[in-house]
Amino acid sequence: MHLVVDWYGRFDFVTRDRLPLLCCLVAFILTFFVTRTIVRYIRRNADSDKPRRWWQPRNISAGGGLHIHHVVIGVVLVMVSGVTMVTLAVNGGVAEFTAAAIGFGVGAALVLDEFALILHLQDVYWAEDGRTSVDAVFAAVAVAGLLVLGFNPLSFFDVGIWRDDRSVDARITVIAIAVVTLLLAVVVLLKGKVWTGLVGMFITPLLVVGAIRLSRPHAPWARWRYTTRPRKMHTALERERKLRRPVVQAKLWLQHVVAGEPQFPDDAKVDAELDREIHAAPAPAATPVTQGVN
């Protein structure tokens, strides 16, 4: 690290103000070439029947065989990094930066309004799948709103301790709490509670509650732990349907309003949405036993 600093100061390769731009350019070029390499590898091996090892690149798919293109990951990273840079602005009184932040907000709204198009790679704006765009906007508004109100990710511990106290004990404590918090977030997400995990990154006690409570019936956690316990799966299904009904009613109403169709959803549509959303997770597929050839 000291060698890098000495090299940077000796050659004065770029001014310190331009260093983020340089890092951005290097990351852009490297990511482009790595992505192209991975995509070409996947395409070349698309027709191969050989089982893939865990480290080999492969396409990312969601439920129903939906292919997640890397543009989706790019959009999420751009949004997260943009909000982070706006949030961490040192001086909010700089007019140029404020104007750039406004431009970012306008662009983010336009992109997220077509998020379903990016996800499905087809025009589903007015179709049922187009509701994904509305969900993406809701998530962005929730995160930005929490940041405006002064909540910070992983706020259960004070990061200032890391800067003020350089003792080993203090740093080990901060790292341990951060690791536990992130593990709780992973458990909550595996239980299918996306909103609890999202908000819990700002209000950490929600992660504790979400990790302790019952999993949603379609989540990976239920697939691994509830498929051999029918009573627990039934409880999860009943609980999910009871708790989700008012949420689905409000969600459908708000989606209709945003989509230009202000109407309160009838019970049949709510029941159909509940039937579509709520289902038991399939049991894990049995791993075939293969013998190696010496």
UniProtKB/TrEMBL annotation:
The chain crosses the membrane at residues 21-42, 68-90, 97-121, 136-156, 168-189, 195-215. The keyword Membrane applies. Coiled coil: none annotated. It comes from the Bacteria. Keywords: Membrane, Transmembrane, Transmembrane helix. The keyword NADP does not apply. This is Membrane protein.
